[in-house]
Amino acid sequence: MSSREFVYEKFRGFYNNPSLAVPTPVGFAQREFAFLLFRERVMARHKGFANPKTLSAFLKERIPSDVYYSCAYYENPEADMDKKGWSGADLVFDIDADHIPTSCNKIHDEWRCTNSECQFSGGFNGKGITPETCPICGGVKFEVKSWPCDVCIDTTRAEARKLVDMLENDFGFASHEIRTFFSGHRGFHVHVEHEAIRSLDAMGRREVVDYVMGTGLAMFRKSRKDLPKQKKGAKVFSLNDYGWNRRLKNGMRKFILNATKDDLKEIGIKGRTEVILQNKDRILKECVEENRWSNVKGVGVETWLKVAEHVRDLESAQIDTVVTTDIHRLIRAEGTLHGKTGLLKVEFPVSQLDEVDVFKEAVAFKEGSAKVLVSDAPEFRLGGETFGPFKNKAVELPTAAAVLLICKGRAELVT
Ligand SMILES: [Zn+2]
Ligand SMILES: [Zn+2]
Question: Which of 21, 28, 152, 166 is the most exposed place for a label (fewest CB within 10 A)?
Answer without folding.
Answer: 21
